[in-house]
Amino acid sequence: MYTTVNEQGILNNYANEPKAYYATYPSPEQQSRYVFQGAAAILFVAALVLVALGVS
After folding, report:
1. Torsions phi, psi of 12, nearest 5?
2. How do residues 1-56 score in pLDDT, each as one tens digit?
3. Interatomic CA distance for residues 40 and 22, integer angstroms
4. How far apart are CA 46 and CA 51, in angstroms?
5. Distance between CA 37 and CA 45 in Å, rounded?
6. Could you tell me if residue 9 is left (phi over 0), alpha (psi between -120 and 50 degrees) or otherwise beta?
7. Separation CA 14–CA 2 (nearest Å)
8. Are 55 and 48 in contact (CB under 8 A)?
9. Distance between CA 34 and CA 9 in Å, rounded?
10. What backbone phi and psi angles, to 5 degrees, belong to 26?
11. Under 8 Å between Cβ of 4 and 12
């Protein structure tokens, strides 16, 4: 990070912004992995809800 001072002595230490780039569309392998992760998350949340209902 570079800190610069203008002629009035005021610091200009803003963060450097990274270059923007376009995201690439996920491959079919990544898409199937996302489907699997979503299904696992749904099962996990459903199990948590059922355990909570069973304990109460």
Report:
1. -125, 85
2. 556 777 787 877 777 788 999 999 999 999 999 999 999 999 999 999 999 999 98
3. 29
4. 9
5. 12
6. left
7. 9
8. no
9. 52
10. -65, 145
11. yes
Q: Which residue has the tokens 């749904």?
A: 42
Non-local (6+) Cβ contacts of 13 within 8 A are 1, 3, 4
Q: What is the SS3 string spanning the chain? A: CCCEECCCCCEECCCCCCCCCCCCCCCHHHHHHHHHHHHHHHHHHHHHHHHHHHHC
Taking the alpha carbons at both ends of the chain, their separation in whole angstroms is 54
Under 8 Å between Cβ of 16 and 1: yes
Measured in whole angstroms, the distance separating CA 8 from the mean position of its chain's CA atoms is 40
Contact of 3 with 12, CB cutoff 8 Å = yes
